[in-house]
Write a structure and sequence with these properties.
There is one protein chain. By secondary structure, the protein is an alpha/beta fold. It folds into two domains: 17-262, 3-Layer(aba) Sandwich (Aspartate Aminotransferase, domain 2); 264-407, Aspartate Aminotransferase, domain 1, CATH 3.90.1150.10. The protein contains 14 helices and twelve strands. The strands form three sheets. It has a seven-stranded mixed beta sheet with strand order 1-9-8-5-4-2-3, sandwiched between helices. Strands 10-11-12 form a three-stranded antiparallel beta sheet. A two-stranded antiparallel sheet has the order 6-7. Helix 2 packs parallel to helix 9 (250-261) and helix 10 runs parallel beside helix 14. The protein is globular and about 80 Å long. The structure holds pyridoxal-5'-phosphate. Pyridoxal-5'-phosphate is lined by residues 57-59, 83-84, 86-87, 131, 162, 164-165, 186, 188, 199, 412.
Length: 413
């Protein structure tokens, strides 16, 4: 049996990335400077946004976006429970209160219906964080009828998008990054494009852009590159606010520029991988394959989450163990936030309030989905998964549920 490792995620930065990083190293300017500027303008163009602000993580971008729209102590912000903690923790950085919402069962997304209902139930909510789970766009707009954006605009609710999975994603032909008040992207090592660590905030609102740029570097009125390249008093700057240290170094931006060049090619290969999974797994009765309502070419295909419908968590555990034993890495997206100690205890949340998220999470497994999977590896993954499911099917012990805490769940890798 072939047990060569197939990791859940692979990062490959061995082409233009090397050249551009070398250029930065030999230029002698490593921190935020010309490369970061160039990455910002190329990224803004790629998503059709007037402004882009490069930062050192998506979490930082979320913090800056929420700060720029004025979220403060006690402000309520609607956040899906089916996400990574960053989407909600950024609200807490500012003293705001995330209100966790259940998601659509088939997609793991917020829908206009869910957001509309939440607005009625929480009329004082100031903003919503929309997560484009797995790389599929939430319905910001609809061809017919009201999208999330329309509903929020009508009620004066600001819209921040967590697009950590969603580059490059489109909705009705328009790139994610050009819809809400601000959109936050991640270039973490296992995301669709990477800078090692990094993020980007895009917006069409010049006020949000200016505030985010100010706050990402200590609230200083001129960034270091600006001062360095200025004529006159290079040493002088003013502090306008108690800002943060969220700037993206040129060393990272150089990687980002090269990754941006191949983002389309990488996305296309991930779509081929997803098509393989659909083809090979559609006949497996106990597997629910991810639903999507966008066109396949508008999906970023960041994740391929399948849901086992044995109805017991032990089944998921056994399948993950089997795959792992055969050298195949998987992950779980997500153990929902209402199950995390901090949110559960602070807001006294119970699973019963999130039936859809519960149904997805108790059976979900994310399969490897990256551009560096070979066809042989794809076949190995699907046949091993079929074997694992068949084994669970024939195991009478699986009817005994195991305690949730006995299951290991990785962070986001
Ligand atoms: C990865 C991720 C983040 C955080 O991104 P960083 O760049 O690591 O800060 C935020 N939200 C979601 C949904 C993510 O998957």
């Amino acid at each position: 049996m072939n047990t060569t490792k197939i990791p859940f995620s692979r990062t490959v930065c061995d082409g233009r990335e090397l050249e551009l990083v070398k250029e930065v190293l030999s230029s002698g300017w490593l921190t935020t400077g010309p490369m970061a500027r160039r990455f910002e303008s190329e990224f803004a163009e790629a998503v059709g946004a007037p402004f882009a602000c490069a930062v050192n993580s998506c979490t930082a971008a979320l913090h800056l976006a929420l700060e720029a729209i004025g979220i403060g102590p006690g402000d309520q912000v609607l956040v899906p429970t089916y996400t990574f903690t960053a989407s909600a923790e950024a609200v807490r950085y500012l003293g705001g209160e995330p209100i966790l919402l259940d998601v659509e069962e088939s997609t793991g997304l917020l829908t206009p219906e869910i957001v509309g209902q939440a607005i009625l139930e929480h009329p004082s909510a100031k903003a919503v964080v929309v997560v484009h789970f797995g790389g599929q766009p939430a319905e910001m707009v609809r061809r017919r009828g009201l999208g999330i954006l329309d509903l929020c605009r009508a009620h004066g609710i600001r819209v921040i998008e967590d697009a950590a999975h969603a580059f490059p994603t489109r909705l009705l032909g328009q790139p994610i990054g050009s819809f809400g008040d601000a959109t936050c992207f991640s270039f973490y090592a296992n995301k669709t494009i990477t800078t090692g660590e990094g993020g980007m905030l895009t917006t069409a609102d010049e006020g949000i852009y200016r505030r985010a740029c100010l706050m990402r570097l200590h609230g200083i009125d001129r960034d270091t590159w600006n001062r360095f390249s200025a004529v006159g008093a290079q040493w002088e700057y003013d502090v306008l606010a108690p800002g943060f240290k969220y700037n993206m170094p040129d060393l990272c931006a150089a990687i980002g520029i090269a990754q941006l060049e191949r983002a389309g090619e990488l996305r296309d290969r991930r779509q081929e991988c997803a098509e393989h999974y659909f083809r090979e797994l559609e006949g497996v009765a106990e597997l629910k394959l991810p639903a999507f309502r966008c066109l396949p070419e508008e999906h970023a295909w960041h994740l391929f989450p399948v849901v086992l419908n044995f109805g017991v968590e032990a089944a998921r555990h056994q399948v993950i163990q089997h795959l792992n034993g055969c050298g195949i890495g998987t992950s779980v997206h997500y153990k929902p936030l209402h199950r995390m100690t901090y949110y559960r205890d602070r807001y006294q949340l119970t699973p019963a309030a999130f039936p859809n998220a519960e149904r997805i999470w108790s059976g979900c497994i994310s399969l490897p989905l990256h551009a560096w999977l070979s066809n042989d590896e794809l076949f190995r993954i699907t046949s091993t998964l079929q074997d694992a499911v068949a084994q669970v099917r024939s195991n009478p012990l699986i009817a005994v549920p195991v305690r949730a805490e006995a299951l290991s769940v990785s962070r986001q890798g």
